[in-house]
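Hi all, long-time lurker, first post. I run a small reading group and we've been trying to get comfortable going from sequence to structure in the token notation. Rather than ask abstract questions, I figured I'd post a concrete chain and ask someone more experienced to write out its structure so we can walk through it together at our next meeting. Sequence below, copied exactly:
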Amino acid sequence: MSIRKRRRANPSPIPSKKSLLVYAEPEPPTHPQDFEQKDAESGAGTLTVFSILRYVALNQGVNSPKLAAFFDKTMKLISRFTTELRYRNFIEFRGSLNKGGYFLKPDGLKFLQNPENTDTFAPKRMTGELVLEFIREHPGANHYAIAAHFQRTIKSATRHTLRLRKKDKITFRGTPRDGGFYAKKNKDRELKNAHDESAENV
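-- Answer (accepted) --
Happy to help. Here is the structure in token form:
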């Protein structure tokens, strides 16, 4: 039995050309490899989340199938990148599922214009304990919320949550699509508190 995606009753209207945020480059890239981020030492190019941001900024209104076709990547990979950009508030999806597309937001434009001067989007320190603390403060947070908070990739967030689950510090509840992580109560701490209380009563 296939599960059909629920369509929004009132999709966000597509912005007019006059209201679009303007992002331009002196020599706009035309090939997929031109959008790849180059490694300083090896010179090898890699498609990253910011490659997708750049392409969306230069081709506003583009949708996931067109992105997948241009970069010759799977829809799953493109979806991971666009979801991360949406959680970072860099882009938004406007219009219906059939005719809509991605558009640049002010935070995304700000980053593209001054990536090195935008402290707000610099990656934050990320450790297992900090991720656990974030989950305690935001029960039900998923990988996208964790990645967006620390300004890291979904892969980094997944690595930390896997370690925390192996240590039995967090649990996942709900479906893969709508679920999230919850911190487990520390049994040792509860036993210690119960022991202290009983000692005081004696």
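A couple of things your group might point at:
The first strand starts at residue 37 and ends at 38.
The chain has two domains: 17-118, 128-187.
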